[in-house]
Amino acid sequence: METATINAIHTYDVAAIRKDFPILNREVKGHPLVYFDNAATSQKPQSVIDALVHYYSFNNANVHRGIHSLAEEATADFEATRDAVKDFINAASREEIIYTRGTTEGINLVAYTWARQNLKQGDEVIISGMEHHSNIVPWQIICEQNNAKLKVIPVNDKGELLMDEYSALLNDRTKLVAVNHVSNAMGTVNPVKEIIQLAHDKGAVVLIDGAQSAMHLDIDVQDLDCDFFAFSSHKLLGPTGMGILYGKKDLLNAMPVFAGGGEMIKEVTFEKTTYNELPYKFEAGTPNIADAIALKPAIDYINKVGKDNIRKHEDLLLNHATERLRAIDGLQIIGNNDHKVSVLSFVISGVHPQDVGILLDNKGIAVRTGHHCAEPLMNRFCVPGTIRASFALYNTIEEVDKLAEGLIKAVKILR
Ligand code: PMP
Aminotransferase class V domain spans which residues (predicted)? Predict the structure, then answer.
């Protein structure tokens, strides 16, 4: 399709955006790549790739402890990301921004510090029926260790949380509520503000898993009033191995430390160790310097395009895909509700998701098939897994049409 035609359909200059992502020029099995696995990880713009190369080729040094120029430059770039993240999620202070390896580590950090200290026998933790395994398993482990109880908010047939049931689960024993902002398996946007408010009314602390929302929705942790918010750099155009845990300062200060080692200490003697200030108290050892530095250009890129524009564009793709795919005989969308972003998950009667995935890959179309690390949700819908197409700011309507046509052909072959 001509650039002018592509842009006429879209809300912004998607052709120009595509030029910033070098991987989109490649072919897969003789076809131009159509990348619809964005919920698993997004592609990276040249500015992010350049930041990685620049750090290793120009100012590679360890951060914080050096007085030489390279160490100072690396530290400045490393810390600049913290300020960018603070603004990106509207945190009250940079001390509330903890660098992690990703959402999984952020959630585990809270489980092994706050929850291990605060959950007593008979206390309750509430999660939802649409959580990723990373927001299930850490709570199971800690509840087992502390003799606390794990409760689950049920999901309706449309893929929404049953809020009345949630209200009924809350009581004075509820100490923590941990839910995702957006479901990775269905794209459902959960009413987290209401969830947080209801939990706070019972005195419970709330962790929001923002792995799937940080790229698509405006995040304002002060407005949400969440106590913790975890997300991953690699799902928002940044590098892998880097993530953020936001926590309210008072909670973070009162929490025990997580990993011990260099950087997280103030003074060490064999008799006693005192710990560093926030955020370094939770950042033991040499951090992931390059990937932290390269998260800033990713955030800058998102800010430049604008979350509103990204959302409008992705909604256009999602609506078009929903319309086209609904017309396919035997196709059932999992997560059929009005509050969704960027994800279309579906099954097709008589064909296995994995076989469809392989046939689409033969046409250069990358989708994800399987349980999406949300096995309890798959059980809820009585499916072994789904086919998931997830959209990003650089995808086009033309690519959605290729997916629809690829699916029609795949069904013909497989049935
Ligand atoms: N929660 C959700 C909702 C996710 O989609 C993911 C990643 N698929 C995670 C948590 C875990 O993120 P990571 O693997 O980057 O730690």
Answer: 34-403
